[in-house]
UniProtKB/TrEMBL annotation:
A molecular-function term among this protein's GO annotations: hydrolase activity
PROSITE patterns: PROKAR_LIPOPROTEIN (PS51257)
Domain AB hydrolase-1 residue range list: 77-310
Keywords of the record: Hydrolase
Hydrolase listed as a keyword: yes
Cited InterPro entries: AB_hydrolase_1, AB_hydrolase_fold
SUPFAM superfamilies: alpha/beta-Hydrolases
The protein, known as: Alpha/beta hydrolase
Signal sequence residues: none
Keyword DNA repair annotated: no
Domain of life: Bacteria
Amino acid sequence: MRLTVRFLVLILLLLSGLSGCSSIGSAMKASPSLANATGFADIPMPYLEERYVNGQSRFMDVNGYHIHYRDQGKGDTIILLHGIFSALQTWDGWVDELSRTHRVITLDMPGYGMTGAPENPDDFDEANIVNTFAKFVERLDLDTFTLAGNSLGGFVAASYAAQYANRVDRLVLLDPFGYPQDTPWILSLGTSFPIQFLGQYVQPPVIITMTLRWAYGDPRRMKEKDVRRYVQMSQRPGARPIYMKTLEMVEERAENNAPLPFYRITAPTLLMWGEDDDWVPVDLAQRWLDDLPNVRLVTYPGVGHIPMEEVPEDTLKDLERFLSQGLDPFPGTLAEARHSMDDEAHSGG
């Protein structure tokens, strides 16, 4: 055990050196105590509830989860699904404006945010997440709706749209995960022993802040409130084992060459992709363009893996264009999407 702890310290020193002082400083600011800054301590639920549950929050019990969600605005319904290690606040840059014309439902996905782990953490896997979301939708008593998802939330959204094609009238996928790919080295490190074992008990927030910096195309766009949320949600009671299971789940999916059912999606689909995404590279957009029958693509130069968080105004503008005009304004190939964004940038649009 002593050797294992020494190995962890060595890894932390290496990561700290790679990430620089900014990640360390951000991690310290986001940690409510020194014990939290080391990554050993949980943050008590009352502390998190005070900061991340508000008057618009609702809860629904599904499949052993206490799902935290918000239901705002009136009009046609759109549901927004965040990615791994995130929470519903990742959509804050969209919700206020979008809820003027739509009913907007955001939720902390199973395993994350204030929803947290299931009663039996062994139940947590891809099928469980998709099934839980499907039951959540059933309980909302929706006929049809627009569905959007980022990263792993994009995979869940696409899986749901393929299985329940009659329910989803429009689909938006932002840097969606799902097809086989090479994963970042830090993910492979996180699934190796002894990191996988130690991660059940300690996850230093500097790793969280460093990972978030890598997820952004331009880390200068990171907001302090978002950094704080990522760090503090990683120290919610029960989060560490689920986060480690997530790394295993993502690695297994990235190595899985079995055919995916996304060809069954009938909803018009808009792909949004950050061109500087190091986690799910933009070249993978071609797989989605090849498999989905009715799809277009828009890309964002200099933007990383979480475009609605990094450039909310630009992505919201394209979402609203899609909702009002359909797919016609958007390119049909990866090359056209890149060329289109270059032309828009040069024209000052």
